[in-house]
């Protein structure tokens, strides 16, 4: 079997391998190797399918279950070994097409492994509940005889069937790959929709927070304005009340000052008369009665110099003024 020239994985990066392009000759060699590997894998798979079909059509499943299980396990190990070699080959080739080929085959391999596991599990269940089991040598003889009878008729069409099986298998691999891609695309779309919904909800939440913040800021500004107005009103009220009290106080002080001045003036008159009066001239004593004029200028009282006049006082007047 011809092999395509391989490169060391340590010297070629993954990105470099995937950007590689084959020449015409290299592509032909690659196709030949892939077809040969597919043919070998298809041959093993047909044997596995034959074992399963033989088991399903048998009327004595309990007897042959152990032997069918052993053959399936053996064929499954061989298939996995060659499948791993097939997977490594496209990876080493490093082209975009070979990478798609590898991914498609990995899907096929995964499906086949699940099918084999399910079949082996079913066989184990049958084996665990059956006592009538066919010996392995009897099964070997029966299968050998059956195989020898059919080998002659199949040999002539082996090549054509192998080629057709390879084409069908590759097409099936591509179909499985597209199916898987479609499933992942649908999941990706769902996730994108969920993400878009979350982003939309987050934007709405932020808009609501912004609106509430603006409302609070506006209320705060209004409160500050109301506070300033209340302070000014309080100051104005205090000034008005203080002015009223101050005016009342000035009026009271003016009244008290006028009364006090009058009282003091009268005291001064009597003091003056007492100083100018003697006991030796009681009848001819002249009493000085001062008069005063009061001028009001700019809300204040200014007493002028008192004027005196000489007059003879009668005894009654002197007695009234308590004069000697």
TrEMBL record:
Residues 1-10 have a biased composition (Acidic residues). Transmembrane segments: none annotated. Residues 314-324 have a biased composition (Basic and acidic residues). Residues 168-219 form a coiled coil. Residues 1-21, 134-166, 281-324 are annotated as: Disordered. Residues 140-154 have a biased composition (Low complexity). Residues 281-297 have a biased composition (Polar residues). Keywords: Coiled coil. This is Uncharacterized protein. It comes from Magallana gigas (Pacific oyster).
């Amino acid at each position: 079997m011809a092999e395509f020239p391989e490169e060391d994985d340590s010297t070629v990066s993954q990105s470099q391998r995937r950007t590689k392009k084959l020449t015409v000759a290299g592509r032909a060699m690659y196709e030949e190797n892939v077809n040969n590997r597919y043919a070998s894998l298809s041959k093993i798979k047909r044997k596995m399918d034959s074992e399963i079909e033989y088991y399903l059509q048998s009327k004595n499943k309990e007897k042959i279950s152990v032997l069918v299980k052993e053959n399936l396990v053996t064929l499954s190990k061989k298939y996995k070994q060659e499948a791993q070699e097939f997977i490594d080959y496209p990876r080493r080739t490093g082209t975009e097409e070979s990478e798609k080929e590898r991914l498609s085959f990995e899907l096929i391999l995964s499906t086949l492994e699940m099918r084999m596991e399910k079949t082996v599990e079913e066989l184990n269940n049958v084996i665990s509940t059956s006592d009538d089991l066919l010996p392995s040598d009897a099964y070997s003889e029966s299968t050998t005889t059956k195989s020898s009878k059919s080998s002659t008729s199949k040999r002539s069409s082996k090549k054509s069937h192998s080629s057709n099986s390879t084409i069908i298998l590759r097409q099936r691999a591509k179909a499985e790959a597209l199916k898987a891609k479609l499933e992942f695309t649908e999941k990706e779309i769902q996730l994108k929709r969920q993400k878009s919904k979350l982003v939309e909800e987050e934007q709405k939440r932020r808009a609501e927070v912004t609106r509430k913040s603006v409302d609070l800021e506006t209320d705060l500004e209004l409160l500050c304005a109301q506070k300033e107005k209340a302070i000014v009103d309080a100051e104005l009220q205090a000034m008005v009340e203080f002015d009223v009290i101050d005016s009342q106080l000035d009026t009271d002080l003016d009244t008290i000052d006028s009364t006090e001045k009058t009282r003091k003036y009268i005291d001064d008159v009597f003091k003056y008369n007492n100083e100018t009066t003697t006991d030796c001239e009681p009848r001819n004593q002249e009493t000085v009665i001062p008069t005063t004029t009061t001028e009001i200028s700019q809300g204040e009282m200014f007493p002028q110099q008192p004027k005196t006049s000489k007059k003879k006082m009668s005894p009654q007047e002197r007695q009234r003024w308590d004069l000697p």
